[in-house]
Design a protein that fits this description.
By secondary structure, the protein is an alpha+beta fold. Helix content is 40%, strand content 13%. It starts with a helix and ends with a strand.
Length: 106
């Protein structure tokens, strides 16, 4: 079972980690989940400035690294942990939209 962390760690665009505007979280029918997408984009924009995902073994390692090396508050780190451990049921590449859709069951 792959999580959002696993997917983010292993996908790249032009051999670079994905950027926040390149990803959206959707359900299986392709309906975007704005709340989860906003949280994921916040994680990518803020937290991933401090770390390279390829260097992390798990979502928990990432959260612990952020806890000890950034001023991010505990409640923010908790929300990041939730999105990182969300099960990802698949990917959909939408080249016309310029997006990678991460599919979750919610």
């Amino acid at each position: 079972m792959q999580t959002i962390f696993d997917v983010l760690k292993h996908i790249s665009v032009n051999h670079q980690e994905v950027e926040s505007q390149q990803v959206v979280i959707t359900d299986a029918a392709g309906k975007p989940n704005g709340l989860l997408t906003d949280l994921l984009r916040d994680l990518i924009n803020n937290a991933l400035l401090f770390v390279t995902l390829a260097d992390m073994d798990s979502a928990q390692d990432l959260i612990e690294h952020l806890r000890t090396h950034t001023p991010l508050p505990a409640d923010v780190l908790s929300e990041y942990g939730k999105i990182l451990t969300e099960v990802c049921d698949g990917l959909n590449f939408a080249p016309r939209k310029g997006l990678i859709e991460l599919i979750v069951r919610r």
